[in-house]
Amino acid sequence: MPGHSVALTVSDVRERILAFIHEACVEPGGRMPTERVLQEQLGISRSRIRDALAALEVEGAINRRVGDGTYLAEVPQRPLLDPALTAMYSPAQLIEARMTFETALPPLIAAKATGADFEAMEKILVSADRASSLEDYEQCDMDFHLALARASHNDLLVHFAEILGRERGMEWGDLKAKTTTLERRIAYQVQHWAILKALRRRAATEAEAALRDHVLYIRSALID
Question: Domain 5-72 maps to which CATH number in 3.30.9.10, 3.20.20.70, 3.40.190.120, 1.10.10.10?
């Protein structure tokens, strides 16, 4: 079932994954193919596969078990959360949501994050610095912002971050790809490192300001 990821939306990839697991006779409660297998079988980029799996998880169609794998819960006849509804969320709305959500994280991170959390963030940013393609960089970018939520050690906040990440990967996400120049990518990274530096010092107020500046910069690049 070959595909070409450039023209595919997350909704498209979601449908292809559902079709593939149906053809593979994966039963409810059965283990899902890995991301690598899905990438190889569908001919779709790993990042698009991840976005679609995130959408399926939000819908309740799959369950991810840490350290064990991903399992099929139930494939609904129609999505519990219709991917078409994504069109209702504009870039401006997503930016507002990110501003509200992400700038509230630093106090929790400063109070609860472990050394391992900061090391994970640093590893992601090093990978982002070395990313050879925009797609690889965007995945690192999303991973970093998800790592921020994970460092809060609040499962519900992590879930909110996953939903925001899913929305980033939907159709309008192509706008960011079109507006991300090398200069902006470098600026994003400088901002990411500044956020991490402040958090490592447990400077919540400074980290909050750095995050706010970062989201405002993204807004100026996308919609201003």
Answer: 1.10.10.10
> If DSSP codes are grouped into helix, strand and coil, which group holds residue 72?
strand
Q: What is the rounded distance in angstroms from the CA atom of residue 39 to the CA atom of residue 135?
A: 15
User: Residue 147: in which H helix or E strand, if any?
Assistant: helix 134-150
Segments of the chain assigned to CATH 1.10.10.10: 5-72
Q: How far is CA 33 from the centre of its chain?
A: 20
Residue written as tokens 């890995």? 34
For residues 29 and 72, the answer to whether their CB atoms sit within 8 Å is yes
C-alpha distances out from residue 69 to 8, 13, 29, 72, Å:
25, 20, 12, 10
What tens-digit pLDDT sequence spans the chain (224 residues)?
444 444 567 777 888 898 888 888 888 888 899 988 999 999 988 888 887 887 787 777 888 776 778 888 865 444 444 444 444 567 788 889 999 999 999 999 999 999 999 999 999 999 999 988 877 888 889 889 999 999 999 988 988 888 887 777 654 555 666 677 888 889 999 999 999 999 999 999 999 999 999 999 988 887 76
